[in-house]
């Protein structure tokens, strides 16, 4: 029987990755301009890291973690997200009192039910600002989100934003919500009943219409927020409402337990049911929860598979491509040296070498199919005179005989 990839863990082929590369190169420019630096943490961490950060009652830890015992009988897990590992790394390096502007990228793992836009291995690019209290850093991150969307050509999106208050406000609201929902527990869908028990705030995220109708009658988050938090949220929205569609969404609590303060998501209708292509917020308590010193923290992560769907196809510009055709069986040591010299002379051009791939005619056909603008042909006769044939595939197939030195010069100036 043939071995298949695991469900929800797709391969990424060159034709998929062309789009990824455009995205990655644009993003690295943005991070550079914000003076954010890359951090790389391991894919595997102790399971406790995630149960103490993302939260035992969250779906991510409860049902979706890839956990197993290692050879030492220790429970380890594939990371479901990046923030917990970044905080762990900073605590381990005893750098909680410094300021950090960090970004990361890589695969994340969640045992979810795969569907369009939802995978078990997916990729995130994340940003974490550490050591910055509530204030300008919220503005800077929303500004970064807008810049990213602009640079990669996404215009049709909405930012949903909410303020979860401090830990106390969050707990007070949570208690009020439970008190309100308890008498209606039998009217709730089975899923929402389970959420009410394990993580009541998640009921706000319910997709059930009847639950949403009931919640309208219940306590509202805004009423538990301090005036400072309310005006901070409103000012933030006012600052960006001319530049994008940014709106308060009181049901936005996010699926990870560590948030307090501002939370946000960017959504696009083009993505269908899994419409969030980015999400984040403030999580000032996490460092303490993980045994570190107090450290302010705020960040977001982009779902790469989802944002790639939104990337304009016209963005993908091919570099100039030149075919390199060797004719004849006899490989003289000089033959390949020419290709080597060409690449050293101009590395921005793609030199598409045809390695023993049939007759001259079929190799030329291949060069046309591969969108080569020119081909350089090295035949046995030409090689004796240190010459090559330069053929222009775009301008009607004209060709000329050049010395290899002339060819290299021409290639350098393409
Ligand atoms: P998250 O909302 O769980 O947040 O994930 C961020 C983004 O990752 C989502 O908006 C979505 O685009 C993508 N994503 C999540 N799960 C999947 C999946 N199964 N398949 C495809 N894409 C997915 C976090 O992970 C937080 N660590 C973000 C953060 C950083 N908060 C503060 N700093």
Summarize the structure.
The chain has helices at residues 14-33, 47-55, 59-62, 83-92, 136-151, 167-181, 190-198, 209-217, 227-240, 286-289, 304-310, 333-345, 360-369, 380-384, 404-412, and strands at residues 37-38, 44-46, 67-69, 75-78, 100-109, 121-130, 158-163, 245-248, 262-267, 276-282, 297-303, 321-326, 350-354, 374-378, 387-392, 399-403. With 414 residues, it is of the alpha+beta class. It binds histidyl-adenosine monophosphate.
Number of helices: 15
State the shape: elongated
Number of strands: 16
- Share of residues in strands: 15-25%
Major pleated sheet = 8 strands, mixed
Percent helix: 25-40%
Structure description:
- Helix 12 runs parallel beside helix 15.
- The radius of gyration is 28 Å and the shape is elongated.
- An eight-stranded mixed β-sheet has the order 1-5-6-11-10-9-7-8.
- The mean pLDDT is 92.
- A hairpin with a 5-residue loop joins strand 3 and strand 4.
- The protein is α+β, with helices and mostly antiparallel strands and 414 residues long.
- The site of histidyl-adenosine monophosphate has 26 residues, from strand 6, strand 10, strand 11 and helix 11.
SSE topology:
Blueprint: H1 14-33, E1 37-38, E2 44-46, H2 47-55, H3 59-62, E3 67-69, E4 75-78, H4 83-92, E5 100-109, E6 121-130, H5 136-151, E7 158-163, H6 167-181, H7 190-198, H8 209-217, H9 227-240, E8 245-248, E9 262-267, E10 276-282, H10 286-289, E11 297-303, H11 304-310, E12 321-326, H12 333-345, E13 350-354, H13 360-369, E14 374-378, H14 380-384, E15 387-392, E16 399-403, H15 404-412
Helix pairs in contact: 12-15
